[in-house]
Every structure is written in C-alpha cells, then in structure tokens.
Amino acid sequence: MSDVLILPGLFGSGEGHWQRHWLQDQPGSRCVIQDDWDNPNLGSWLPRLESAVEEAGETYLVAHSLGCLLAARLAGRSVARRVKGALLVAPCDLRATEILHPGQISFGDMPTAPLPFPSIVVGSMNDAYMPVDRLTLFGRLWNAETRNIGLAGHINVASGFGRWRNGYRLLEALKTRSGVRKRIVSMPPAFAM
C-alpha cells in the first residue's frame, strides 16, 4: 500500500528534483515508473498509472508537469475512486510543451474534465510550459484549488527547487481537506441537511 504515488513528467524527475527528495523523505511514497521517460505516450503511461493506483489502494498523487496531465486523465476512469487527492505541480500545457519538444510527446488533447478527487494545482507566473492564464483556466476546469507561487519557473531543479518544504505543507493541507470531505460525504442522511 502506498500513501503517495509520485508522477514525474517528461524525462522523469532527475537527480536533485523535489520529487526525488520526496521519495527519500516521505515513508510510504513510491514513483510510478514509465518505460520511456523521453517519449511520453498516453497509451502506455495511463495503464501503468491505473495499475499503480489499483495496487496502492487509497492513495494521493503528487504529480509534476506532464505527470499532472496523466493524473487528470483519471477523471472518468474507475480507478479514480481510489485517489484521495492530487497535488498537481507545474502542469504543462500540451501546446507549449509540443512547441518546446516537437515530436516527442503523444498525449492527445489537454484533459478538461473535472477531477473527481480533491486537488491543488500549483503553478507560477513565468513557467515556459504553462502560461498563467492557462494555469487558471485548467485549474477551474479540473475543479481544483489553484495556487500561483509567483516567479518560480517550472518548479524544478532548473528554477531552484530541490527539497521543497512548502510542497510538503501543500500535501498536508490537501490530506486535511480530503479527510474533511470524506467525512462530510459519508455522514448519515439525518445530519447532512
């Protein structure tokens, strides 16, 4: 059973990336390993995630970049019932990503369905992979709380993010929120009025 599944994006999360630190620092976390980090293909990445969620039981997703779009693809899938919440950090806009990495990504269109689990989208004002207006749009479409953390680039090693303590705090806030939501949803009908 995994409390947290880590979902890296294009190229995986290399040495020093905050997701790598989380794997070391957070007991009960594990990375969803993909066969080809350099040429992401939704047709192979999504089944791998679904299998990991089924195996983990109830779990939280902590995704970065293209991993956020992978997490968003769970909307409408049966395994989504096992996801307690998702922290979606620096989601990429497929249009921008395909311009920056032509011919490398086969991920279809941007997912736009509301997420069936509590989510926090974290982005920045100067992310080359996601313009801030699109960040706000997708946060709204996904029915997620959106947090803009200012001039933070792609929230990766290149923009100065190694061990990211505020990320841990965001995950704890998400866990608290999803726990409250679960208790409210499971209240007896007499108390739900």
TrEMBL record:
> What superkingdom does the record give?
Bacteria
Q: Pfam families of this UniProt entry?
A: Ser_hydrolase
Q: Name one GO molecular function term.
A: hydrolase activity
Q: Residues of the signal sequence?
A: none
Q: Which InterPro entries match?
A: AB_hydrolase_fold, RBBP9/YdeN
The record, for SUPFAM superfamilies, names:
alpha/beta-Hydrolases
Gene3D superfamilies attached here? alpha/beta hydrolase
Write the protein's name.
Alpha/beta hydrolase family protein
Q: Which organism is it from?
A: Rhizobium aethiopicum
Upper taxonomic lineage: Bacteria, Pseudomonadati, Pseudomonadota, Alphaproteobacteria, Hyphomicrobiales
